């Protein structure tokens, strides 16, 4: 059974004041069904990233080798019927990898439910900010870090992985944080289950949160 569960997010602003915004998430009432759904969608995404190009030829596919290399008896050498034998250099391969399509079917509703569930459970480590970083006139990592510190987010450890979710592509913002090893940036309409699972903290702009609400509600 799918139920609606609300989360009230506190929105951090530069002047240390905060407002709130409530979003309803659709999730399964049963915990095990949520785990199964997340696992299915995660497998689907990992399969999408696999190419499956490794491919070897068997003795029937290797070129040449139609003629018997030498006569059966009298040469003193081991008998051989074809140069395509897997025992020969340049011959076929026994039990080698074959090209394969890694694919499972996922419905759109399943994908939406899984992402909603992950975002819902990431609530304690999710921070909503009012700042849209329009003041970044040019790429500048130092200014970006300073603006992030002014928001007073309770993120203390430098080795924590942070996923920055924005409403649209900000070239200056992307260039400012791409050399920070523990921060990734993604657009709100491009979020995926793997990126959210790998992140220790989520920082979402208010406009980005509105897009997530529009897509997943």
From TrEMBL:
Function field: Probably binds the 23S rRNA.
Organism: Spermothamnion repens
GO (cellular component) term, any one: ribonucleoprotein complex
Region listing for Disordered, in residue ranges: 52-85
Keywords assigned by UniProt, alphabetized: Plastid, Ribonucleoprotein, Ribosomal protein, RNA-binding, rRNA-binding
Family the UniProt entry places it in: Belongs to the universal ribosomal protein uL4 family.
Pfam families per record: Ribosomal_L4
A single MF term (Gene Ontology): rRNA binding
Gene Ontology terms: biological process: translation
Gene3D superfamilies according to UniProt: 3.40.1370.10
Keyword Ribonucleoprotein in record: yes
HAMAP family: Ribosomal_uL4_B
Protein encoded by which gene: rpl4
InterPro entries according to UniProt: Ribosomal_uL4, Ribosomal_uL4-like, Ribosomal_uL4_dom_sf
Domain of life, source organism: Eukaryota
Record's protein name: Large ribosomal subunit protein uL4c
